[in-house]
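Action item from last week, closing it out:
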Amino acid sequence: MECLVKTSEILHESNLEQLAALGQFLIGRANDKNSTSKLSVEAFISIASKMGIPLDAESLQDMVMQGELSGVINNVDDKEISFNSEKQVQDNPELSMDKARNTVNNMAQRAMRKRK
């Protein structure tokens, strides 16, 4: 039983890291295009799902409320996610845009392999 708990904790942590990386990637893209760092909850969940991350709106809101994604997500409501600014992300020593890009690239490659 202890092994199952540790495995689920590792999977949860891995999903959190991937969601944080996805958020960072989207923040960087918005900054590159001089647009706002906002996205519909539906679109974010769809992207996460395509990358193999199980997520629904309630779980997303729970993670944000618990501060688990506070490094990248400023606020989430029923329809929209408001991301932190790129400066706020850069000021967080645990987050790196390069790490985010690598994580998102790896997730995309895994998703492509699953489709073949």
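Closing note: Residues 1-12 have pLDDT under 50 and may be disordered.
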